[in-house]
Amino acid sequence: MTIPKIIHQTYKNHNLPGTYKMCQTEIKRLHPDFEYRFYTDEDMDRLMKTEFPEYYDKFNELPRMIMKIDMFRYFLMYKYGGLYTDMDYLMFNNFDMLNEKVVIPCNREDENGEPICLGNCIFASQPNHPYWKSLMDTLFTIDRTKLDYNTDKNIDGNVLGTGPLFVFAMWKRYSKINDDICVSKRSLFHPPTKNNNQYIEGLKKDGCYGMHICTGLWRNNKL
After folding, report:
1. Model confidence over 150-168: pLDDT tens digits?
2. Helices then strands, each counted (H, E), the chain
């Protein structure tokens, strides 16, 4: 089995900001043979209700929309597989790692080049992979409703709750049992973000797949 040629992206509605439209155009241009699927918040709710009814109530207990959006992308990977990217992820090259079971990029490394955090703005997977199921099932085992998100510290707590550090922690647990997840080097998917044409052209030539522009709309409750 290979990773299906499906691109998944989500946003609250079809009125995309200019940066998002630009990133959407590029990913479609670079993947003409991929099926493109876009989900609004209404689509997300409907799909969770119809395809994952046993998770639906717990899913709706998540206290912030960004947490639902985080978890929803894990459900998409489990159900359909394919390539997921945030709307503010700018692709440079065609994603061609289709023979892997799961690809999750490193977005922070220690001084030895070892991952200390994984990204959740882009990843890819075959369908029905047990790693994603383990993330889904935390809806029943982690009570995220008691977390408070009124300070910067607790916004970072949201990252621990459903985002990159959560993905990393669950990978560390999973990797003790299985080693079938490809954790790529940071330089492949998560180079430092710079608005510099010469820098970006160099990344493209070096085979970098893309760059996270990091608009961070969720921090201002705009998602």
Report:
1. 433 344 444 458 889 889 9
2. 10, 9
**In what helix (H) or strand (E) does residue 107 lie, and over which residues does it extend?**
strand 102-109
| CB neighbourhood size of 92 (10 A) | 19
CATH number at residue 13: 3.90.550
- Look up the domain containing 24 and give its range: 6-220
Say which amino acid occupies 133: K
Per the CB < 8 A criterion, the answer to whether 93 and 177 are in contact is no
**Residue 55 belongs to a domain:** yes
**Structurally, how many domains does the chain consist of?**
1
CA distances from 93 to 17, 20, 111, 161, 200 (A): 22, 17, 27, 31, 12
- Is residue 56 in a domain? yes
Tell me whether residue 173 is in a domain: yes
The pLDDT assigned to 146 comes to 64
Instruction: Let me know if residue 95 belongs to a domain.
Output: yes
Q: Which two tokens stand for residue 192?
A: 């430092």
Residue in the structure block whose two tokens are 């493109």: 36
Structure tokens at 95: 């994603």
Measured distance CA(101)–CA(177) in Å, rounded: 15
